[in-house]
Design a protein that fits this description.
Organism: Sphingobium yanoikuyae (Sphingomonas yanoikuyae)
CATH superfamily of the largest domain: Outer membrane lipoprotein wza domain like
Membrane topology: Multi-pass membrane protein
InterPro entries: Poly_export, Poly_export_N, SLBB_dom
Number of strands: 22
Number of helices: 11
GO biological process, one term: monoatomic ion transport
Strand content: 25-35%
Radius of gyration: 37 Å
Subcellular location: Cell outer membrane
CATH architecture of the largest domain: Roll
Length: 396
């Protein structure tokens, strides 16, 4: 083997020294994010002046988060409405007929009527009143009975209210009430539907899916559409897919309900030592942490730290332990910066991951294992060593 000339030897030594200085000056060998220890120590740091809460995921934490994020279903929040035409509304018109058994003579003329029981002559007096329009206060006015509140009542209940007012004034009064004109049995449908419209309800009792179908359905995929129903001061929201799967949530709509179809492209971002670092879309019905890990291809065997699986989230205070929430500073919109940590070295964590919900805009991060950084260092040193050997072989 020939000895290196002084000039070439000096060059090799200079190259080695430069590489050593480069390594010495590097504080990191390159990574896709913070280490597990850095994330765990984030509680002493801040995001926009809001201290970050690092919470280890266990059964209690998962249960609290799931309870806070439970969807309020239509059947529980709003109930099943009555079929249209069974309740009186503002502006509706009523046909009212009143019969009175003899000998009283408050209403009409003497007419034979076999439908009205009579203990005397079998003749009953009847009166058909002019069509009664329900006024802006929800009332109608009946002779000898006065002003009666009728909005929200069935025709049968209106008849009973009139009879109660006439008792003691008329002899055995009988009242028949019919809704002759209904003007307020409409539902408003807006949002991501084929046609925004006012849909008239019928005595059949149209349900939510009936009304959506009548306007041509939703424009976006079913799995990415939320349905919001507003009834008076109450509002409830559910994924359309969940309504389709559970017939109980396909509730009968009521007059003046507002149905809004909302396109909601839910997604989370996966970073770090995953099989696929990307923004991942998911359905409106929700996604668990276990499913999220599956969709990104799981953890990288050669890089991932199984104790360093994290969810970064701006969490609602009610989803956290009250003691934790009480000491946390909130963002301007009332959220608390939280990092949930899952230790997959513990087999029980896989059961927790099956129920823990991933939310829209979450960041799923998997840190590198410490040995992965050591392996990077060894690879760099090996490449440098072989480079010097190749230089030596070249200049022989």
């Amino acid at each position: 083997m020939r000895e290196l000339t002084p000039a070439i030897s000096a060059r090799a030594q200079l190259l080695l020294a430069a590489c050593s200085l480069a390594l010495a000056g590097c504080s990191s060998l390159g990574a896709s994010g913070p280490t597990s220890s850095s994330v765990k120590n984030a509680g002493q740091e801040s995001v926009a002046n809001a201290p970050i809460k690092v919470v280890d995921l266990n059964a209690d934490v998962a249960s609290r988060v799931m309870a806070a994020n439970k969807t309020v279903e239509f059947a529980e929040a709003l109930g099943d409405g009555r079929a249209a035409g069974t309740n009186v509304g503002l502006g509706d018109a009523l046909d009212i007929a009143i019969w009175e058994a003899p000998p009283a003579s408050l209403f009409g003329t003497m007419v034979p009527d076999s439908r009205i029981p009579s203990s005397s002559s079998g003749l009953a007096r009847s009166a058909s009143l002019p069509e009664q329009m329900v006024d802006t206060e929800g009332r109608i006015s009946i002779p000898f009975a006065g002003s009666i509140q009728v909005v929200g009542l069935t025709p049968q209940q209106v008849g009973q209210a009139i009879v109660a007012r006439l008792r003691g004034k008329a002899h055995n009064p009988q009242v028949v009430v019919r809704l002759s004109r209904v003007v307020n049995n409409n539902v408003t449908v807006v949002g991501d539907v084929s046609e925004n419209a006012r849909v008239a309800l019928t005595p059949k009792g149209e349900r939510l899916l009936d009304v959506l179908a009548s306007v041509g359905g939703v424009k976006q995929p079913v799995g990415k559409t939320l349905i919001q129903i507003t009834r008076g001061a109450q509002t409830a929201t559910m994924p359309l897919e969940a309504v389709i799967k559970n017939p109980r949530q396909n509730i009968r709509l009521q007059s003046d309900d507002i149905v809004t179809a909302l396109f909601q492209p839910f997604s989370f971002t996966a970073l770090g030592a995953t099989g696929n670092s990307a923004e991942i879309n998911f359905e409106g019905t929700g996604l668990t942490m276990a499913q999220a890990l599956g969709r990104v291809g799981g953890l990288r065997d050669d890089r991932a730290d199984v104790r360093g699986v994290f969810i970064f989230r701006l969490e609602r205070p009610e989803a956290l332990d009250p003691a934790v929430a009480a000491t946390a500073q909130k963002t301007p919109d009332g959220k608390i910066p939280v990092i949930y940590r899952l230790d997959l070295k513990n087999p029980a964590s896989f059961f927790i991951a099956q129920g823990f919900p991933v939310q829209n805009k979450d960041v799923l991060y998997i840190s590198n294992a410490p040995l992965a950084d050591i392996q990077k260092f060894v690879n760099i040193i090996s490449q440098m060593a072989f480079s010097i050997i190749n230089i030596n072989n070249t200049i022989r």
